[in-house]
Amino acid sequence: MEEGKIRLLVCEDDEVFTKLLLSRLSKEADLEVVGTAINKETLAFAMEQVTFDVLLLDLNLADRRMEGMEIALDLRNRYPSIKVIVLSSVEEDEIVALMLGFGRVVNYIMKENVQDIPAAVRDAYYERSGIHYSSAKKLLNNLNAQQERELRKKITPKQLQILKLQDAGYTRREISEMLFYSEYTINNELCKISSALKGKFPYLEWLRLKKHNSKDILQLARQLHLI
């Protein structure tokens, strides 16, 4: 290996894509592929034979769906310093989030963006953050959905019902009569909703007030897709 080059190990079972990838990487003077593998077993053997800086890992290998995920999780525990970039055609938001989160891979790139892989390799090697745009949106979508689920857990069905009735234009007194609760109970449940929102968004100035405007609370609830 020439001094100063970034050494790559490629684990990919698609022969056509492998040729395309190797051809693309060969055009980069500072990158060198030092080994290839097609599955978990051949990767383990290759890792014993060569020294490398970055692993380019296919998510689905041979007939074993998500074998790349198994490999990433294993490497995370056994070799936490290894930098792994996942190359995949799998676009599910949850899978992308799992690989970047639990799998601790440094990037997740759709195979159609093969031209962007050299830059991603350099970012990984020099420890520069830079999730590829093909997976960044999916990660954010998953994170947003997760946060919405966590917030919904803090809002009870009773409180959600009260919010929906308020959003429909009913007064607190009317809601208390419809749900057979005292008006005090309705007010108390709305205070609990405010507390839950305050815990999630402490930086919103109006939420720090003791008395909250129901209109503001309803608007925030709509923005958060609670109602």
Automatic annotation (TrEMBL):
GO molecular function, one term: DNA binding
Segments forming domain Response regulatory: 7-126
Keywords: DNA-binding, Phosphoprotein, Transcription, Transcription regulation
Signal peptide: none
Gene Ontology biological process terms, A to Z: phosphorelay signal transduction system; regulation of DNA-templated transcription
Residues recorded as bearing 4-aspartylphosphate in the entry: 58
SMART domains: REC (SM00448)
Short name of any one Pfam family annotated for the protein: Response_reg
Keyword Repressor: no
CDD domains documented for this protein: REC_NarL-like
PANTHER family reported for this sequence: TWO-COMPONENT RESPONSE REGULATOR
Name assigned to this protein: Response regulator transcription factor
